[in-house]
Amino acid sequence: MTTPDDYFFAITKSEPWSGLVNEWNEYNLKEGVDKWTEYGDDIQFRTVSSGDALCWWMAIEQMYKLPEKARDPQFIRFGPNSSVPIHRDPKSLAWIAVTIVGDQPIEFYNMDKEKLYETTYKFALVNSKQPHYCDVKGEERVLFRKIYTKTSYETLLHLLN
Ligand SMILES: [Fe+2]
Q1: 132 Cα–ligand 1 center, Å
Q2: Which of 1, 38, 57, 73 is exposed most, by the fewest CB atoms within 10 A?
Q3: What is the pLDDT along the chain (161 residues), one digit of tens a residue?
Q4: C-alpha–C-alpha distance, residues 161 and 78, integer Å
Q5: Within 13 Å and on the Cβ side, how many CA atoms surround 67?
Q6: What is the extent of the structural domain holding 129?
Q7: Do 49 and 72 touch, CB atoms closer than 8 A?
């Protein structure tokens, strides 16, 4: 039987750096890379490859001995007009994210697209192979997120505990 622990873990041992919002405001001035244009043409990615936000993230990586250090984290902005259906992430196995803007809940589903669970989070690990969905409800949503393509949710869960 699947429980929320199999796909969602709220990270409470560490606080996200409080300067991330200001950092995002700086990044927001630059043009992002459009992705997933099939979903409302309003989703942009900005890779964080230097600066204080990266330093904070690298300290977290070091503290929890997180793998896949070569890939930089990104800010992802889901615009008010974006709409991504229930999906499993094609590329990642799992991700760790900080909510920067927006309080819309993330919803989890089973393979029959029946809803299992919904939650909001500040800092969390998500199993992105579990079907999931977030209705932006016509409002902006921004995450600071690191994806894992070779490391399973279970392994990351273990490291974060
Ligand atoms: Fe996703």
Answers
A1: 6
A2: 1
A3: 889 999 999 999 999 999 999 999 999 998 888 887 777 778 999 999 999 999 999 999 999 999 999 999 999 999 999 999 999 999 999 999 999 999 999 999 999 999 999 999 999 999 999 999 999 999 999 999 999 999 999 999 999 99
A4: 30
A5: 12
A6: 4-160
A7: yes
Number of domains in the chain: 1
pTM: 0.95
The CATH number of residue 92's host domain is: 2.60.120.620
What are the tokens at 130?
């579990």
Ligand 1 centroid to residue 23 C-alpha, Å: 23
The alpha carbon of 133 and the centre of ligand 1 are apart by a number of angstroms equal to 7
Distance 128 CA to ligand 1 centre (A): 6
What is the Cα–Cα distance from 151 to 86, expressed in whole angstroms?
22
